[in-house]
Design the sequence.
């Protein structure tokens, strides 16, 4: 069983559209949507949720105003500026409150509080799901608004997708990754067999591709590239190809800019099921190349 | 005044709106541009600032004094992030898990833990066409962006107009970047992805109690559901930017729209006036 992640560094280059097309083209696979704070894959795969689980991670701290004597020791030790004195309009005295959004749950305030007035509350950060789609199983999640621990949720999604793939004897786990290079990206990328980097021929796209290739190298993951909307700037497309050649990274294909991609998206279907020429042909070729790359590599 | 530009979904045009807005404000008030998308900072590709200073940004991580440590394990017990483990006569530190809360050094009964700075990225400062420019660049392989975003935001000029370019998503880096804004411009596109992520971004801003409005980019591609949603939720649509190959081409080369299509300067000025009118 091989794990393939689709990432990009820069957002909006076409990761999810390509992942959904792979879901339609590939056989014997499980999909995982690891863009847990702005998940979109479900809009194309239309999952029927079979299992729903709570995602609890980390802690939040709360002050018991009955016990608090406003000594301010907690404010002193908090490194995240999450605790402040608050002038209430109703009560005459100041009140100390913890801003749950800034709180990173280290709990040091609770440990130093002489009055034992700060309590730890386990944090419900989101939900994750195992769903059926017409393409196979999808594991996906929703991180609560303004929540932390996206990396842990990504790991949980991946772990479950992998388990399903193993139990059902599947050949691939196809992972839709988040943008950026930080914690959820690292969690999506680490230990996969292949990372397909989707870039576009813009200076931003190139810059971000170079950074995400750096991350893949850092974690020892083999990376290949595909260029989306390549004909919007042929000169930049050429620079990408040259860069890849120089870095010994294979370009899997070049997808032209075509409004059919948006038309398919508006209809909520993978583009390869909506149109048969141009874009779809190229995505099919890319999938074949990605697949043979994976099959060649020894697990 | 702090105006942040965010989106939920990546690639909708945050940076485009942020830089063109900043470049259209050549008034008497100083303008500061802060690129808080420290994982993938791109605004400098368009603004081409002259960088005048570079600063290393780190987080404090624990360092154990082996002579003082008696391996009691209190630090490992305190650490909420599992960044310390004590096994037999050894203390293991995992810097990539450490949030830098300082609890271990504060509470070690033997006073055996001090803190040392571990670099997570850099901040570069400079200027361009009368705009003060600051961005953060997260080091490759570094998972935690928020301390770096916090460092970029310390450079906010409270006497001027600050434009913040926010990373995509709705989780901690986004919160850190938009926190404290007087207004947030949400850039979206009229597709199901754009709408889905716009809704998440709206929830985020409502939770943070930050006033906001929407810019619809590539407004003529896709469908009308973003408009319907905004009408239903009573959300202000501040501006529409059509899809034009000239704009896409200019973007691809790192050229601001207002340089390619000068008539857009007035439109971005209007966007600013519109934003200002909606800050209470």
Sequence:
């Amino acid at each position: 069983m091989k794990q393939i992640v689709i990432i990009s560094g820069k957002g909006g280059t076409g990761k999810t559209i390509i992942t959904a097309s792979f879901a339609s083209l590939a056989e014997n696979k499980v999909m995982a949507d690891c863009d847990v704070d702005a998940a979109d894959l479900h809009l194309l795969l239309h999952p029927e949720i079979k299992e729903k689980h709570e995602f609890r991670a980390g802690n939040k701290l709360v002050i018991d105003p009955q016990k608090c004597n406003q000594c301010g020791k907690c404010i002193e030790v908090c490194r995240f500026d999450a605790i402040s004195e608050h002038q209430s309009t109703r009560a005459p005295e100041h009140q100390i409150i913890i801003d749950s959004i800034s709180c990173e749950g280290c709990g040091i305030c609770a440990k130093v509080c002489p009055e034992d007035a700060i309590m730890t509350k386990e944090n419900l950060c989101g939900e994750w799901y195992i769903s059926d789609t017409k393409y196979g199983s999808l594991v996906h999640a929703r991180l609560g608004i303004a929540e932390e621990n996206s990396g842990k949720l990504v790991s949980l999604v991946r772990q479950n997708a992998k388990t399903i793939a193993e139990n059902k004897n599947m050949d691939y786990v196809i992972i839709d990754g988040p943008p950026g290079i930080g914690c959820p990206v690292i969690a999506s990328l680490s230990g996969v067999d292949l990372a397909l980097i989707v870039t576009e021929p813009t200076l931003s796209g190139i810059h971000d591709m170079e950074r995400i290739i750096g991350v893949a190298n850092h974690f020892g993951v083999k990376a290949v590239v595909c260029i989306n909307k390549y004909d919007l700037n042929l000169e930049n497309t050429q620079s990408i190809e040259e860069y890849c050649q120089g870095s010994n990274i294979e370009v899997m294909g070049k997808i032209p800019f075509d409004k059919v991609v948006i038309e398919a998206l508006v209809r909520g279907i993978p583009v390869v099921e909506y149109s048969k020429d141009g874009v779809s042909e190229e995505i099919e070729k890319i999938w074949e190349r990605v697949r043979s790359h994976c099959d060649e590599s020894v697990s | 005044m702090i105006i942040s530009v965010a989106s939920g979904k990546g690639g909708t045009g945050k940076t485009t709106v942020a830089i063109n807005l900043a470049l259209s404000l050549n008034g008497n008030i100083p303008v500061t541009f802060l690129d808080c998308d420290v994982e993938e900072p791109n605004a400098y590709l368009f603004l081409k600032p002259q960088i005048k200073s570079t600063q290393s940004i780190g987080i404090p991580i624990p360092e154990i004094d082996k002579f003082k440590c008696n391996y009691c394990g209190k630090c490992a017990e305190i650490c909420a992030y599992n960044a310390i483990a004590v096994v037999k006569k050894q203390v293991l530190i995992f810097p990539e898990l450490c949030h830098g809360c300082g609890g271990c050094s504060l509470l070690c009964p033997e006073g055996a833990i001090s803190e040392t700075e571990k670099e997570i990225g850099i901040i570069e400062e400079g200027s361009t066409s009368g705009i003060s420019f600051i961005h953060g660049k997260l080091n490759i392989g570094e998972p935690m962006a928020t301390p770096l975003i916090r460092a970029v935001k310390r450079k906010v000029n409270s006497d001027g107009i600050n434009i913040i370019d926010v990373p995509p998503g709705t989780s901690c880096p986004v919160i850190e970047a938009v926190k404290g804004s007087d207004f947030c411009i949400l850039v979206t596109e009229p597709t199901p992805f754009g709408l889905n992520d716009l809704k998440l971004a709206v929830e985020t801003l409502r939770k943070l109690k930050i006033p906001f409005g929407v810019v619809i980019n590539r407004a003529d591609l896709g469908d009308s559901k973003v408009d319907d949603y905004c009408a239903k939720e009573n959300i202000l649509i501040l501006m529409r930017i059509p899809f034009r190959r000239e704009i896409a081409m200019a973007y691809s080369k790192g050229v601001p729209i207002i340089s390619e299509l000068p008539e857009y300067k007035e439109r971005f000025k209007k966007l600013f006036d519109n934003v200002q009118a909606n800050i209470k």
User: Anything to note?
Assistant: Chain B touches chain A through 57 residues (CB under 8 Å).
